[in-house]
Amino acid sequence: MQQLPPCPQCGSPYTYEDGDLLVCPECAHEWNPETAPAQEEGLVVKDAHGNVLKDGDAVTVIKDLKVKGASSPIKAGTKIKNIRLVESNDGHNIDCKVPGIGAIKLKQEFVKKA
């Protein structure tokens, strides 16, 4: 039996074949392995401890962060699931949803991989 590649969206190793497509049961992502684009190596985002982050990772905030327009800060130790990495000129390379705050972009130096 051949080894199937992990899901390019969430990294799950539990992919399966459905005709010509590969399917991820965890995030429902479907892709064709022959026409799938190569992983982009240009954007490398590392957390405060030097661990490489990827889309779908969970991170923990390492210091209290004030948020403009919010009544309370993001507390140190807040766990954020399912991050998305984006290219940014101002250093806010992590796009995520913070519980109690909502959608926000964070700098990589204020998080660690969970």
UniProtKB/TrEMBL annotation:
Q: Which residues form the Protein YjdM C-terminal domain?
A: 45-114
Q: Gene3D superfamilies per the record?
A: 2.20.25.10, SH3 Domains (2.30.30.40)
Q: What would be one Pfam family of this protein?
A: Zn_Ribbon_YjdM
Question: Which SUPFAM superfamilies does this entry report, sorted A to Z?
Answer: Prokaryotic SH3-related domain, Zinc beta-ribbon
Segments forming domain Protein YjdM N-terminal? 3-32
Q: What is this protein called?
A: Alkylphosphonate utilization protein
Similarity comment text for this entry = Belongs to the YjdM family.
